[in-house]
Amino acid sequence: MTVEEVMGKVFKMDRRMLTDQTERAAIEQWDSMGHLQLITELEEHFGVKIAIGDAMEMGSVGKVKEVLRRYGVIG
Question: pTM above 0.90?
Answer without folding.
Answer: yes
